[in-house]
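Ticket #4471: structure export looks truncated?
Reporter: QA, pipeline team
Priority: medium

Steps to reproduce: submit the single chain below to the structure queue and open the exported record.
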Amino acid sequence: MQLGDKKLIVQRASVGAKNAQNQPVQLQIPGLTLTGNAGPPTEVLCLMNMVMPEELMDEEEYEDILEDVREECGKYGQVLSVEIPRPIEGVDVPGCGKIYVEFRSIMDCQKAQQALTGRKFAQRIVVTSYYDPDKYHRRDFQ
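Actual output as written to the record:
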C-alpha cells in the first residue's frame, strides 16, 4: 500500500501459527525478567503476571481469583493446593503477586504449564515456571 511517498507493507498474523524455527516464543513483559525456559518440571507451577498485589487486598476478589485458578488448573489434572501470597501493609511479602499451584503429578503440571503460558488473564499475559516443591511446602516463596 502506498502511503504518501512511503510504501506500507502489511502482514497478516496467523492465530496458532508456529514460528519458523520451532523455538519457544519469547515473551517481553515490562518489569518481568525471565531467563531461559520454565525450568525442570515439578509438581508445582508458579503463575506470574496474573494478579496485582492490590487485587489481593479485597477478600471477595481474592476468593474469586482463588476459585478461578483452581477451576482452570483443574482442567489439566488434580490440583492439591493453591497458594496466593497476599500483601501486608508495611511488609515486603515474598511471592506477592504470584500464584503457586500444586498438582498431583508432574505430568498434570506440565499439561497446565503448556496450556496456560501466554494466555491472557485480566488483560495480562500469563507467564509460568516450575517451582521447587520443597520450597513450596516450606512456604518459601520468591
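Status: closed, not a bug. The export was complete when the record was re-opened. Leaving a note from the reviewer for reference: The longest strand covers residues 44-48.
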